[in-house]
Batch of 4 targets.
Target 1
Amino acid sequence: MNIASLLVDAEPKDGLQRSYTVSDPKPEPSPAMSTSKLPTSPTVAHPPPLSQLPARRRRNRNDPKPIWAYREGEELPPELAAEERKRLQPTLTPQPQAQPPPPIIASHSSNGNGVRPTPVSGELQGYERPICNDARVYDEVTRRVCDFFWTNIVMHTELRQAVAASPGVAIEIEGRWGQLTNKLSDKHRQRLISLHDSEGVVRASALDQTQTRFESTMSLEQHKKMNQYLNRLVQQSRAPASGRPPIEINYKHTKEVDMFYDLDPAGIMLLPEPIQPIVQQSNTRQRIRVTRDMQSGEVLRKIVKHRIANLEILSPQTEWDYRIGINLEIEFPGPIEGLQLLVETGKMPHDMERRKDRVSYSWMNAYQIDLTQVVQGGTKNHELELEVDADVLLGAADKMQRGEQQGAIVNDFEAIVAGMMNNLRVLSREITG
């Protein structure tokens, strides 16, 4: 089959010219993605995972699902059931205490007092509840993203231990809006579409890594529309509608300049010792991003951003697709003096400056949306990304493993991931509509 039959022109029909980001190193396929391939795609040889640590193993289809995915009353496999009995043994008492009734909220009703008890757990009711009477039915894409995080971070024990033992190192979890495109020529790309007409996770083996990339960009008009939409949400959060609990959205405007320097072997040796083997195993060129205040020139950050894994999601019904990324952000402890500035062939050093005008919106101490205008080498690009607080997500996962949310219809770990996906969808639909 001709690959062109699966493509749609990435250029906007309204004639607006889109500029794309400067080429980044080609992302490696996520080790958590399925290795089965689509019949219409060529066979692609992928490099091994960035880390050869045993906890990085991809969960196979026949492996038992992680403990966070089990619901109350669902039968556990023998090995998990034995661990659960062992964990609960010290807390057993001869006279178990009666459980308190579920909390209720006021809801309109036709009875005498005008209210009726309603569970606050968010369980399915009425027609929504399936024949099996399950309280919740999981969203398949959200569950896939949960598995992606569970495999690549939560159960990646050696990675988490290395981060915990390394000052200045943090895990970054981000979602980016953009388009998954296929390179047809040096100047022309087309958006990749699938055979299905709805949102879905892309198999890593279906992507030709030498021809396909994720373009994180939007037009100027889309940038303005998104800025206006997010600003309205900030105003509404400060004056919430009657009867709705306020969710405060914080707003911050920054102007910064990025420059990139080569991270050579000597620079790697300056990084925290537990992190060095992870960085050294990378097959891509490592860079130091030095960020300065645009007005004062003060150095704000010196960061090595190391990619762990990516997960691509196609969204044919909206303007944008999504890339879910897991990275390490490593503070570079060495001096800037003596570093080799990365300059592309035919360009001058000042052409490599990335001048960022960014507006950030954060809420619930868990999410942050960055709307950024980037000017580099005479070109202007607009980017939108969502960051999830890794400490909040990992804290929720650890609570699940300790059994602190046993019996919850929706656990915090799954709820945070669902919130991430819902935010990606809502903003994408706002622009598409």
Target 2
Amino acid sequence: MRNDLSFLVLFLLIIFSIHDHLVDASSLLVKYLPGFEGPLPFELETGYVSIGESGDVELFYYFVKSERNPKNDPLMIWLTGGPGCSSICGLLFANGPLAFKGDEYNGTVPPLELTSFSWTKVANILYLESPAGSGYSYARTRRAFESSDTKQIYQIDQFLRSWFVDHPEFISNPFYVGGDSFSGKIVPGVVQQISLGNEKGLTPLINIQGYVLGNPLTDKNLESNYIVSFAHGMGLISDELFESLERSCEGQFFNVDPSNARCSNNLQTFDHCMSEIYSEHILLRNCEVDYIIPETLQTLPNIRTNRRRELKEFSGNDSSSLPPPSCFTYKYFLSAFWANDENVRKALGVKKEVGKWNRCNIQNIPYTFEIFNAVPYHVNNSRKGFRSLIYSGDHDSMVPFSSTQAWIRALNYSIVDDWRPWMMSNNQVAGYTRTYANKMTFATIKGGGHTAEYNPDQCSLMFRRWIDGEPL
């Protein structure tokens, strides 16, 4: 009898232990992460959701519960741009609770620290790696690996409805879709797709309320045409070149007629002036964005001393070509070591089928670009009454704030709160904002770049006020 009782107690302990770590068959509660000292002071879940026609696509996600009131706070899915960029860009760079310390790499797992600007202080955030081939997401067949703008939209909707089945406690939370950069083509479509699915009676119903977009790629022709006036306004090209470009190209700088020699020559001069500018933030040092980390170096467990010599030996690179920690993009260099570390992948529950992690992997994804203008999605979403926050770092030349203002203005909605500065808590100007009758708020981030990571404190305050329904 005593042996039977001992066995029962042991069995129950095993069951409870398994339940403590597993949310469902492919989800994991992560309590420790390599690079971070001690247990995580927030709730992190990772996992895979099988989607696609035959379940051949495995999309990986990170889910961070709100630090305020997860049962009632909004839930937002965050989509990193690219396409093909890992959602680590959001989790560890832009608006998540952890970030790299930025110490010079010494061969160990790059250290992490808590951030003060995490959007998860006021919202539950689901960071999704989409499409397959991004981050730790993958596909089992070549056909399933193929993706496109519209396929992403359908698969994200499918992912969400499957995820909510396993997380029914969040179904009633106000739901938002967020993203930046290339996600400007995807996020509005996901909002529309969710809405249409709800109307058709797809279950579970998703409590969609609106969306958030940062420096969103919306209309490539429009954005390309505004880069020239942006550069002129920022003093990067001369008055004479700007005027000559306007005359010779007639205000059209995208898909220029090759027979227009004067326009082509002016554009070559323009490209020369901009060639050494870091396009994501024109004031920052122009460093390489990503560095190729050889397989031999990634798998060495004990490189601890004389980092420069060993990096040169195993990478074949001269030490002068390695990124200095003073580069803003140095954290991208660190992320390649962190995300490819076997202990990190084990802690996150990454499946063995996943190969080398790349921050952005579009070159290896068979992807079709189909949405050339996302404005119709915004129109449809506005008609259905969804809230939206569109923000722009005002020193980004990739998607200039002026081009975003232009397509918003073209929607021709009346203004309910006209252009004004919005302030930080210390009474310093954080940027400028305007709100329209279609529940769309536009905001600039003063001194900001292409994504929230360039000015995370301003973006965090902006998000908190907007998600809580307060004026900026």
Target 3
Amino acid sequence: MGAPVEKLSAADILARYGRVSSLNMQWHKMSLDATARNGRVRGNGIVTDDTLMTLCLMDIYAEVGRHLDAWDMADGMVRQIAWIPRYVPELRREAMLIERLFYPEKWIFQRHQLASCDPRQGGIGNMVNCGAAMYVAPIGVVNACDPKAAYDEAIAFACGHQESYGLEAAGVFAAAVAAAFVPGTTIDAVVEAALALAKDGTRNAIADIVQSARQLKAQGADHANVVAEFHRIIAPYSPMGDDVNHTPAKAGRLTGAYQPHRLGSIEELPLALGFCLVNDGDFRRSIEDGINSGRDTDSIGVMAGAILGAMHGEEVIGKADCQLLDEANRLDLIASADAFTETVKSILAADQAATDSRAISRAALLI
């Protein structure tokens, strides 16, 4: 849903679309004769790299059948993006996924295969962005109901891709997904679990947005006012604002954006959590509000959707949307989710067996 309007401001989306509330939207970069820009296409259910990278991570878990670390980034993810051909919907052809990826994601291949770095140092020097956070939801699933374990595993894995607040966001997002699986939980409890683990600028940004979200909800603020306030709050942590497109005029320009900084934060995760809170955990409304806030619309939608999907289950996704997504992308997402579920159950069973074995051993020491 966020793909057709990615990088537009909230004002641009309002002027061009009114409100995005359907998968059946035309990409804003499509020309009047409906030909794809630069051979690429979006809209009408076409997924972006967020979804494709998430599916890659699910496949890595299926291959290894255990928890992950940076060596799995160096091995498994490099093979997934650079050596396994797949249908890439935006390109409308089979290709290596690396052809579609943005430069911070291509960095995975450069650092691990070409530079042969220590896997734990793979993220050093990368452009700091949400590129790792956007696809780590499966780590939250594998550590369902254990936010701390999800945070630790996401950091151990994603340090091979990102650093600084880009890495921190990956850990906190995975933790939020894990917390969302706790039976009977609420979005407030999920947010508190994320805050308990978040560090530095990421924690401060989430805390500030959360405080504002609760106030705005109590006031019954409309979407425009919520977006304006969220953008005002996030600006000190993420200085890009609406100027997110890279142009020749930016070459050599001095900027603090995308630089490692303990006081910085990506904006996608704090905003996603904020929209979830404003809407009291409503799946569809939270995603739509996040997308209509503009900028990195697909990743804001992904983060809100993964957290609330874990809370509510697949029944919140319409059957017509599922059918359109599968047909537009040549995927079978329910089958992929079912297969991943079996992998997760196997990993969780092994975790439980290991826990039981340790408990028996420790009990024996007391005899």
Target 4
Amino acid sequence: MIIVSKFWTRFFSAGNASAITIFPFVFLRDKSLKEDEILINHERIHLSQVTELLIVPFYTWYLIEFIVRFLKYRQFRRAYLNISFEREAYRNENNLSYLKARKIWSFWRYL
């Protein structure tokens, strides 16, 4: 379910994101982003990741991986971009048919 909310995207991302997935919702910063197929595809990839790992393990892994990357790089953006879930989503967001062919646990290749 897609929800347009500046408040929630800022709250969950410290104000940095255009969109964020908090299962089962995709929060968008503004209404015009509903038309951005690439952004929506990116967030749907995250929904697939959450579904296959289940909710709590996904967000726990995501947070732990972010902390480990941040300790390594000492940069918020670089740590975020190197999380395996984000790497999979960014590398495949332009392929709008990716989710049709995506195999379970595909994020594992991006660790």
